[in-house]
């Protein structure tokens, strides 16, 4: 079917389809409307198989007799125009497709949500495991490579928008290796724990109890055919927390990616210029200022997060369904696919940013030196404290004020107070530094490099355990 990109209402189906056609197609296999109907057909056929297994038929025979059944989603939509009920429309179409001996068992013992919730669990599971998790694995691998490459590259630390003590750029990136790595593991676990049901109109197996004296066993058999487990408790619907926990963790991962985008965006400011997004030779940054190299990809990731993250409130509200079920989530639940797709497009763009990121070690060094020895006020205060100087913090605060007023370096000011200078020299020698330490902020890196390498090794192993290593 030819798709007119300009006839779509959602940017997902024109702008993002055009930008990421392969990703859009891959997501569509699980999340578009054809996929929704296809998965519902799988659920209905699994129920048929469970019924026929009860009749003593071999599974291989059943599958052979049901092979070749094809239903065009447009057939279901045409039938729905008559029934005004999507699952009854699907059942009516399916009945005409299966062998005569199977027809009385189509949908027998099931309510619509036995099919819909089960199908949605499958398609969300498959979208996560076949598209989103591998995608996040690629992003995580790129973050690890970047962190390892820059593990020893000094960078001034920043807190509250102010220069703090030095770290390394790799250590700053390792924060995201750890944060995204933990979220990736949670998403893998939660996507594998989505559940289905075959418990009937109120969840008490009323209809199935007329068919078999072991209704829960039949539910287990039905769901085994689909690779799912049964919800611990069902009303007319699967208890919502299985899906909600997955979506909450997806939103957590979204926030991590947005935070990374924001950090990288700020590091591209003209007055900082420590990193740069890839900028193609033909790319334009401004319609009127030819010199501009805007960090638009990072800004785009953050903008997607702003668009989709608030939808988590709808997912929270979808927890509430009166008694055994109401329809107050019938519209809002349809937008889960949009949320997953929005996250996926943001993750894809973030991977493109990280994998092609330019790092300016020259500007990293320049910014580290801009305040010079002032960023070493902390170690000076600690060395004096260890040497027994009372009120060492106040002593150093006074020295930094003199430094700012006079422009004279801290080592020079310290030389005018021989007793303090001697204490510092003794303490520096104890930890293996000489007097040059106080004018060399790149020496004060703590365990930045070691922790970066440790975290990268740890999360490489975890990626391997998840089957997502590259």
From TrEMBL:
Keywords: Lyase, Purine biosynthesis. GO terms for molecular function: lyase activity. The keyword Phosphoprotein does not apply. Residues 372-456 form the Adenylosuccinate lyase C-terminal domain. InterPro entries: AdenyloSucc_lyase_C, Fumarase/histidase_N, Fumarate_lyase_CS, Fumarate_lyase_fam, Fumarate_lyase_N, L-Aspartase-like, PurB_C. The keyword Lyase applies. It holds the Pfam family ASL_C. Catalyzes two reactions in de novo purine nucleotide biosynthesis. Catalyzes the breakdown of 5-aminoimidazole- (N-succinylocarboxamide) ribotide (SAICAR or 2-[5-amino-1-(5-phospho-beta-D-ribosyl)imidazole-4-carboxamido]succinate) to 5-aminoimidazole-4-carboxamide ribotide (AICAR or 5-amino-1-(5-phospho-beta-D-ribosyl)imidazole-4-carboxamide) and fumarate, and of adenylosuccinate (ADS or N(6)-(1,2-dicarboxyethyl)-AMP) to adenosine monophosphate (AMP) and fumarate. This is Lyase family protein. The lineage of its organism: Bacteria, Pseudomonadati, Spirochaetota, Spirochaetia, Spirochaetales.
């Amino acid at each position: 079917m030819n798709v007119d990109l300009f006839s779509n209402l959602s940017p997902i189906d024109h702008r993002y389809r055009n930008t990421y056609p392969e990703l859009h197609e891959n997501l569509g296999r699980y999340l578009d409307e054809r996929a929704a109907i296809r998965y519902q057909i799988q659920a209905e056929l699994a129920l048929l198989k469970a019924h026929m297994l009860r009749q003593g038929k071999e599974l291989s025979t059943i599958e052979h007799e049901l092979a070749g059944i094809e239903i065009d989603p447009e057939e279901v939509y045409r039938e729905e125009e008559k029934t005004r009920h999507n699952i009854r429309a699907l059942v009516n179409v399916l009945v005409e497709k299966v062998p005569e001996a199977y027809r009385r068992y189509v949908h027998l013992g099931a309510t619509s949500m036995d099919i819909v919730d089960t199908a949605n669990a499958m398609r969300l599971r498959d979208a996560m495991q076949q598209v989103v998790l591998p995608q996040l694995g690629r992003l995580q691998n790129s973050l690890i490579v970047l962190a390892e490459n820059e593990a020893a590259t000094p960078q001034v630390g920043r807190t509250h928008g102010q220069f703090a003590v030095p770290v390394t750029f790799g250590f700053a990136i390792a924060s995201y290796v750890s944060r995204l790595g933990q979220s990736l593991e949670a998403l893998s676990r939660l996507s594998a724990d989505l559940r289905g049901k075959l418990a009937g109109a109120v969840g008490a197996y009323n209809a199935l109890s007329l068919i078999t004296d072991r209704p829960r066993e039949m539910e287990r058999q039905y769901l085994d055919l689909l690779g799912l487990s049964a919800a611990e408790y069902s009303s007319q619907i699967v208890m919502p927390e299985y899906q909600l926990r997955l979506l909450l963790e997806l939103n957590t991962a979204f926030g991590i990616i947005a935070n990374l985008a924001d950090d990288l965006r700020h590091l591209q400011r003209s007055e900082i210029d420590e990193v740069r997004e890839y900028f193609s030779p033909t790319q334009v940054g401004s319609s009127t200022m030819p010199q501009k190299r805007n960090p638009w990809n990072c800004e785009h990731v953050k903008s997607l997060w702003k668009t989709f993250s608030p939808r988590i409130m709808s997912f929270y509200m979808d927890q509430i369904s009166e008694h055994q079920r109401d329809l107050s989530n019938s519209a809002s639940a349809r937008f889960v696919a949009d949320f997953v797709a929005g996250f996926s497009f943001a993750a894809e763009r973030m991977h493109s940013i990280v994998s092609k990121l330019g790092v300016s070690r020259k500007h990293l060094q320049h910014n580290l030196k801009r305040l010079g020895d002032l960023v070493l006020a902390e170690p000076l205060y600690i060395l004096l404290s260890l040497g027994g100087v009372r009120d060492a913090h106040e002593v150093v605060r006074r020295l930094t004020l003199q430094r700012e007023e006079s422009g004279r370096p801290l080592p020079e000011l310290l030389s005018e107070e021989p007793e303090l200078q001697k204490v510092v020299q003794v303490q520096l020698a104890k930890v293996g530094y000489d007097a040059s330490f106080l004018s060399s902020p790149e020496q004060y890196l703590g365990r930045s490099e070691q922790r970066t390498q440790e975290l990268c090794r740890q999360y490489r192993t975890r990626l391997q355990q998840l089957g997502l290593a590259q």
